[in-house]
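Sample log: DUF445 domain-containing protein.
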Amino acid sequence: MSTDWLMLIAIPLVASAVGYVTNWVAIWMLFHPHTEKRLFGLKIPFTPGLIPARRLEIAERLGVAIAKHLVTEESVAARLESCEVRAKIEEIIANYLDDFLTKDLGPLHDLIPSHVKELAYEKVEELMPLLLERFSAVLEDERLKKLIKIEVYEALDRLLTDTLHEESLFGQLKSTLIETFVMSNMDEIKQKVDRTVDEAGQQLGVLLQRAEVRARVYRSLIDAVDELLTHPVGQLRHHIPEEYVSHGRTWATKQVLEILKRETPRMLQALDIQKLVRGKVNEMPIAEVERLILAITSRQLKAITWFGALLGFLIGLIQVALVLGRGGL
C-alpha cells in the first residue's frame, strides 16, 4: 500500500481522535481546574473551570428551580393525598400508639408530677366544706328520704319473713316473740324509722361541724386519693377496647394529614427550599459537586465525547472524498 493511501486512511482516524479529545477536554474544562491558576502573576484563561467559577450562580438557579417547579405547595399537597403516604403515616401512628398502649405505666403516683399531687391535696382540703354541705343537703332531700325508708321497710320485712319461717324450736320461739312484741307494734316501729330518717340529715349536719369529725373525713379522703394514686395502671391496652384503638388510629391519621396539608405553605416558607438548596450546594466541596453532576449526566457526557469522535471521522472522510475528487492520488 502506497504512502498516499496510508495518509488518506489516517485522515479520518486522526480527525476522529481530534474530535474525541476536543470534546473530552471541553467537558473536563467544565469542572477543572477547581481553582484559579496563575503563571508569572498572570491569570491563566479558563481557570477555574466553568462550573467552579459560576458555582454561586449555579447554586442560586438550582435553588430557584427546585423551589418554584419541584417542591411546591401543589406537589407536596398532591403527595400527601397519595395512598402510599397515607399508609406510611398510619403505620407510624400505629407503631407509636401500640408502643404507648403496651407500655407498663405503673402506678398513677409515678405518672403525676409532685406539684400536681400537692395541688390535689390542697383542692381536697379546700373543697371539703362544700362537699360536706352538699352531702348534708342530699340527706335532706325528700326523695332520698323516701328511698331510704322504703329500703329499711323492705329489709325489715325480709328479716321478719325469714324468721317466721324457721322450723326449729328456737325459730318457733323467736316467731312467737316477734308476733307478740314486734308485729303488734309495727306502726310504732315504722314511725320511729320515719323520724330517724327525717332527723338523720340534721344530726349528720351537726356532727360534721365538729373539728374532729372533719379531720377524720379529711383523712379518709386523703387516704382514698393515696390509694387511687398507688393503684397500678398497667397497660392501657387492657382498659381500652380494640375498636376504640382502631378508630383512634384512623382519626389520628386523618388529623395529621389535615394539619400537614393546612400547614404546608408555612412549612415550606419556614424551610425556605431555595435557601436550603443554595446553602447545601455552596457547602459541598467542588469535587463532590462534580461527582454529583457526573452521576446524573455521565451517560450523556460520554455520548457527547463519542459523538465528537464520530463527527471528526465524518469530517475526515469528507476531506478524503475532496482529495480523491480532485484527483489527488
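Observation: The radius of gyration is 48 Å.
Observation: The chain has two domains: 3-91+266-325, 108-234.
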